[in-house]
Amino acid sequence: MRTTTTEPVGVEVTDLDLREVSDAEVEQLRLLLAERGVAVFPGQDVDDEAFVAFLRRFGDLAFTVGETPVEGCPELNLISNVGRTTPPRSQFHVDSSYLRVPPAYTALRTVTIPDEGGETLFTNQYLAHDTLPADLREHLEGRRITHVVTGLDLDDDEETQAQHPVFRPHPVTGRPALYLSTAARCASISGMDEAETQAVVARLLEHSTRPENTLRHAWSSGDVVMWDNAVVMHRADHSGVVGDRVMHRGMVAGHEAEAGSGEDHPGW
C-alpha cells in the first residue's frame, strides 16, 4: 500500500486491492482517515458486494432513513442524476449530523461518471478550527450546535435532532475539528439567540469552505473515495455536469463515546 498526501486534506492510496485488505491495513487506513480526512482509492474493480464487504471491515453499516436504496443491495443508497430535469442541489454538510451518534465514515464508489463535471469537494475541518480568529474561537469554546434533520420525511420514532460540540475532538486523534453542517441544519448555538446563531454559522461556513481549505476531487472510472465525517465536510458540484453521474454510497455507523469522556462527547 502506497500513500500520497493531497492538500489541504486527503490522501491517495495505491497498490491496494479493496477486495483483499488485511486487518493491519484496515487499522492503517483508520489512522490515515483520522489524520487526513479523505482516502482516494483509484482504479478499483469492486462491485456492490465487495464494496459492502470492505466497509464492514470498519464497523456496522448505517443507512439514512428516507433515502433511495440500491436495488438488490439495501445497505447502499443510490446517488444519481439520471432522469432529472434539474440538477440536484448540494451544500457543504456532514452526513446525518442530526443523529446523536452520526456515521463515522461515508464512502462512494463510481458506477457511471459524467463526461464533464460532477466533482466532490472536501474541507479540512481541523484546519478550519486551527485558523479561526482567536477571539471567535474563545467565544465559541464550550458551546454546542443543535443539528436538525432537513429534507427527509421521518417517522415520529426516528431521531430528528442532536447537540454536538462546535469544536468536536476526534475520538482517534483527540484533535478538535470545527463540526458544522449546512446552515439550515445548524438550528441553534448554545447561549446565542437566533440572529447571532445565523450570523456565526454563516461566518463559520464561509471560513471553512475557502478555496485554500478545500480539496476538489475529479472522479475517474474505478474510483472509491472514503472519508471521516469527524474531519471533513463535503458537497457534490452539480454545476456544468454533462452526462450521467451515478454513484453508490455506503456509511459506517459511529460508535458511542469512550467511557469517561463526559457530556462534551455525546457520541461519534
From TrEMBL:
GO biological process: sulfur compound metabolic process
A Pfam entry, by short name: TauD
Keywords assigned by UniProt, alphabetized: Dioxygenase, Iron, Metal-binding, Oxidoreductase
PANTHER family documented for this protein: ALPHA-KETOGLUTARATE-DEPENDENT SULFONATE DIOXYGENASE
GO molecular function: metal ion binding; taurine dioxygenase activity
Family that this chain belongs to: Belongs to the TfdA dioxygenase family.
The protein, known as: Taurine dioxygenase
Domain named TauD/TfdA-like: residues: 7-250
InterPro entries attached to this UniProt entry: AtsK-like, TauD-like_sf, TauD/TfdA-like
Organism: Nocardioides aurantiacus
GO cellular component entries: cytoplasm
